[in-house]
Pirin (Hymenobacter glacialis), 240 residues
Amino acid sequence: MFKYISAADRHHAAPAAWLSSYFLFSFADYFDRDNMHFGPLRVFNDDNVAAQSGFPQHPHSEMEIVTLVLEGEITHQDTMGNKTTIKAGEVQRMTAGTGLAHSEFNRQDKPLHLYQLWFIPGQKGLAPSYEQKDLGFMGANKNELVPLVTGQKVLEDVVYMNSNSTVYWSNLDEGNELEFKTFPIRMTMIYVKEGTIFVNGTELGPNDQARMTNDDVVHVRATKDAQFILIDLPANEANY
């Protein structure tokens, strides 16, 4: 099954003057019983944070939290003792596990753009942990699917998480195409940052998304230079 969701159908939230966020799933004040999650992917927020602003300390538990910085940089501090800066092209993963708290601020004089994804972990009761890598995903490895975060130990030079899922990034030039082989027991989600692609024959533009189940192959072709995220997920809760 192929489900196309247009950019206009995302939920827009602006709870403060400094934050503009698009929720791809039910989150905070947005509730849609039919849009709670896609497999273990529980949250996907497309956030824009104004200069010298951010999220004060707040708690999390039993979630794998992945942050991809697209533009600008974010200053992170948590109750595990981590004090870090995540710049564009870097990836951060927090295992909230039994509980932690953190803050996220844009200390720069320019806007910050990031994606934050939350995954339901494959195991509860884990000790909180943290990982961060500079993968330079915004400009490198053109016309490929580059793994950024995964629960598959066979992949190298990635950030690991406690979810049987993998997050890929692609910078696909106009006229190029790629295939992602999957299985009926897996699901695939694509979200476009910029450009135009055809996914299994359906056109997606900036901020459009596709959610696919029961597929064997996902075929992507760019008709305009594109950047997009592809997420491979288990279809059954027992495999999260």
The chain has a mean pLDDT of 97. The longest strand covers residues 217-234. The radius of gyration is 17 Å.
